[in-house]
Every structure is written in structure tokens, then in C-alpha cells.
Design brief:
This protein is mainly alpha-helical. The chain is 74% helix and 0% strand. The protein has one domain. The relative contact order is 0.04.
């Protein structure tokens, strides 16, 4: 009878160990839930950024003024007959 009680006690300890610290344990599941929540936040931010980029691409494809503005802003392009003035800030 004592032997059976010892075997059951050992089995309970093994099961408890696996529940709290082993593979697929409660702690591991909680960590995975936190990682999933963080990844979902990052995915939401990236989805918003992608939507902004889609709108910008659509504007560049459909509106020549936006394309011209970007070319002037990013590439420093000027039209024929225009004079380009570059203002360099004074260093302190």
C-alpha cells in the first residue's frame, strides 16, 4: 500500500512539473500569448503603413502634380526656364 502511495506521489510530482515548467507548460503558453499580442500590434502598425503607401502610390499614378512635387522634392528637379535657389543654413 505504501509503495502504491509513493508511486502516485511521484506521478503527481511529474505531472505538476510538466504543467508548470515542462514543454507546453502554463508559463510557456503565457509567454506565447504575450508574443502573439506584440506581433499583432506590430502587424496592425505595418498594415496602417502599407495603407498609407498604397494611397501614395495611387496618387503618384493618377495625379501628375503629385508626381511632379515628389520629383522636385526628392530629386531636386526643375523645369526649363526656372532658376533654382539653394539656401544653405548658416552654421553656428
Amino acid at each position: 500500500m505504501k509503495f502504491l502511495a509513493i508511486v502516485f506521489a511521484i506521478l503527481i510530482c511529474i505531472i505538476q512539473y510538466r504543467i508548470w515548467w515542462g514543454e507546453g507548460s502554463y508559463r510557456e503558453i503565457e509567454l506565447l500569448k504575450q508574443q502573439i499580442a506584440e506581433q499583432q500590434k506590430q502587424n496592425d502598425l505595418l498594415k496602417k503603413e502599407n495603407e498609407i503607401l498604397r494611397k501614395e502610390i495611387l496618387a503618384l499614378r493618377t495625379n501628375p502634380q503629385v508626381l511632379e512635387e515628389k520629383a522636385r522634392e526628392n530629386l531636386g528637379l526643375i523645369k526649363p526656364g526656372e532658376t533654382f535657389y539653394r539656401i544653405i543654413p548658416k552654421e553656428n
